[in-house]
Amino acid sequence: MPSTFAFRILRTLGMFVLSLFVLLALTFVIGRIMPHDPVGLIVGELADAQAFAAMRAKLGLDLPIPQQFWIYLQGILHGDFGNAVLTGTPVLQDLAQAFPATLELATLAILLSAGIGVPVGLLAALYRDSIVDQVVRVLSLLGHSLPVFWFAILGLIVFYGQLQWSPGPGRIDAFYEGIVPTRTGLLLVDSLLAGDSEVFWNAFGHLIMPAIILAYTSMAYIVRMTRSFALEQLGQDYILTARAKGLRLRRVVVRHILPNIAVQLITILAISYGGLLEGAVLIEIVFSWPGIGQYMTNALLIGDMNAVVACTLLIGIVFMALNFLADLAYVALDPRTRSGE
Predict the structure, then answer these.
(1) Per-position DSSP letters for 260-311, written without gaps between them
(2) Same structural domain, 315 and 190
(3) Do both 34 and 117 map to the same domain?
């Protein structure tokens, strides 16, 4: 029923807003009770007590926390997240520069991990307990168990330091910075729009190694879950019947297995993509990638809570938006959900 579907959408939106408010409140309160004092970073540690008091009053840090939160909430509703202590510029301006870098890295990583992980997971399920399955399981276990920063450091040592196949840390060589106009913030897209292939390939060279390492850690999870979903379907009677009728294995996978695990795969891919956007912190630090992970880490180290709260809220919005889109995909792939069946 349409009314049932509309109610589910409204309920999801309501939970979306409530969850963001709770996330914002908790992050704000935790930031205010942390021992870090951003005032010292602004006026300097050698400033006198009067300068400290004046700056605290200017920032509103001398007010009760509930009043501070109310003022901050009013600012957010008007699009003002305050200025970052580290850069002195509006936080939204910093996020507009940092988030596209993380988005570009995470998007290429999820495309690689999904494009390879799903077929490999299906292959392991189809040839269960074979040498192929065993190799896939070992590689998945390694990707899931070993820390991502270890892969990142090893990649830099081998492919940049020894073999010199990779251009190294950073998002682009200093020589190419500022050559193409910024339209989307995504270097690959902007260089294509500008028709500059030299900048594109330089940016792609910097992107590919951190994206592959990030994709491998995510791919391990996708492979394991895809294999599990496919094994569950392979044991069903309709699959055994199709095979008994002589239906080719490829057609069984395409016509029966994939449609029946599509909803589960969407959930896994949405979770993985959100995790990549959030969890690229170590990769960004090792590769000096100017994304939101490195920006948030630097803000945490100096107690810049305007930046931390804004980053936390942005990550929360991304996760909830992905879950919302996954719910819509459920309806598109499974018509029974439209009537609440």
Answers:
(1) HHHHHHHHHHHHHHHHHHHH-HHHHHHTT--SHHHHHHHHHHHT-HHHHHHH
(2) yes
(3) no
